[in-house]
Amino acid sequence: LVIFIFLLPVFFFQMTKSVTNPEELGGLASQMTSDYGHLALQGRMAAATAEPEEIGFQIRTRVQELGHGCIFLVQKAGALQICPTDSYTKRELIECARAVTEKVSLVLSALQAGNKGTQACITAASAVSGIIADLDTTIMFATAGTLNAENNESFADHR
Predict the structure, then answer these.
(1) Cβ–Cβ under 8 Å, residues 55 and 21
(2) Domains of the chain with CATH codes
(3) Residue 143 needs a FRET pair 20 to 30 A away by CA distance; which of 17, 67, 110, 125 works?
(4) pTM for the model
């Protein structure tokens, strides 16, 4: 899902760059539409599994808003293809691309908000793994006899 989020701004950049070559806009709009379709599918699954429910609602809403922005962007790209010299339409296309880029960042922030619990679990698991590795290392040294006890007790007595 995040990959699609990062790919969309690339298409918007290419789209605004293609203002000078309007014949490229049709292919870019088609690719963006396809990528948004994948994003919407993944966003639906992310929203369904997000906790709490309000995060899921936020993801769903922001993905829908991004979709509306993509629709306007594709419409402006089509309008520019019809009239490639219209400077007003060029400006509108660039403004739509900026608005869509903002909506992409809002989707990304909603996804990150829904990911906090997962990230906390990953961090905790990493900390526990570190503690286990430290204990394994200590056991290895103690078994080898390199950790000397002060009162002639063996590690096996305490293990």
Answers:
(1) no
(2) 1-115 (1.20.1420.10)
(3) 125
(4) 0.66
